[in-house]
Backbone:
């Protein structure tokens, strides 16, 4: 990272910063990273070019357990960000950036895709409550400060009380 910063200092005509890329063999460098100098750590878990794919389960668990990368709701629980910026950054911004048709906002005529979060009910991630197909998470054993109460897709309850309802997903459309 030090070399990247030196290069930026020498060559950049504008403000700069660099994400630190995780690999299967640089956990020691990630642990030493100064969070005041980097915006975050990028982790490629599906596919990547070169050696940037992190596909070792133990390395992924170490990254998520030992590298200071908090999720947005955890930051809100610590009082470091309020709910409004979370919604703006995680819902409005992607929908606007990618011109997603009638999603990302609560507006008349828009699809009612919503997640209701209980901020007063902690949730521990375990193998038994992981609902996605791969059935593992680098966050297993971690306790989150919040719980997802319900998830709505186009106004229909898709998730409630730990149960997934097959409401069927829809292909997104883009206003381009």
Residues:
């Amino acid at each position: 990272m030090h070399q990247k910063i030196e290069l930026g200092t020498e060559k950049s005509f504008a403000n700069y910063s660099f994400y630190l890329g995780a690999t299967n063999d640089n956990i020691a460098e990630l642990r030493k990273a100064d969070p005041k100098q980097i915006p975050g750590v990028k982790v490629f878990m599906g596919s990547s070019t070169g050696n940037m794919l992190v596909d070792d389960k133990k390395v992924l668990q170490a990254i998520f357990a030992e590298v200071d990368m908090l999720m947005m709701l955890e930051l809100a629980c610590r009082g470091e960000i309020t709910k409004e910026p979370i919604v703006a950054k995680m819902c409005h911004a992607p929908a606007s950036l990618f011109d997603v048709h009638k999603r990302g906002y609560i507006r008349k005529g828009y699809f009612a895709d919503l997640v209701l979060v209980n901020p007063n009910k902690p949730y521990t991630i375990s193998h038994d409550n992981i609902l996605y197909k791969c059935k593992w998470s680098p966050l297993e054993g971690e306790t989150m400060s919040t719980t997802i109460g319900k998830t709505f897709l186009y106004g229909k309850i898709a998730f409630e009380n730990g149960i997934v309802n097959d409401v069927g997903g829809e292909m997104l459309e883009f206003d381009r």
Summary: Strands lie at 20-21, 41-42, 114-118, 123-124, 143-144, 147-153, 156-160, 163-164.
